[in-house]
Amino acid sequence: MMKLKKSILTMAVLGMTLSGAAGVYAGANLQKITAYLNHSIGIQVDGKVYDSSKTMTPITYNNTTYLPVRAIAEVLDVPVRYDAANRQVVIGTGTDQGQSNELVPLKYSEAQLREIRKAFAKF
Q1: 50 - beta bridge partners?
Q2: How does pLDDT run across 9-68, given as a tens digit for each residue?
Q3: Helix or strand (DSSP H, E) at 74
Q4: Least crowded by CB within 10 Å, which of 25, 91, 104, 116?
Q5: Which element (helix H / strand E) includes 18?
Q6: Does residue 48 sit in helix, strand or coil?
């Protein structure tokens, strides 16, 4: 009976040690910030207004507004997934095969740039 208690205690201590180490590793890759849930900002996509519920509430940090990727992708009906191996959020239907992680410069016409600036000025 005493051996059984020692075994259970040993397993419990080992389990706590391993789970604590995993938390420390995950925490080492994160940076603590102070941000605000900004319930005063509404979200409108293609003329349709969306409720800024818990999953869609914009976050304001350092005078910049951030939107939750998954919620916006779902509104736009675009697939989104997390690639844990590369620690990347993948938006769209592309596969990892044959794709490069390099940034590609985009060329916009002056009319497109005006529309983009006008859209972002509303934020």
Answers
A1: 43
A2: 677 666 666 665 545 455 567 788 888 888 888 888 888 888 766 677 888 889 898 888
A3: helix 69-75
A4: 104
A5: helix 2-28
A6: strand
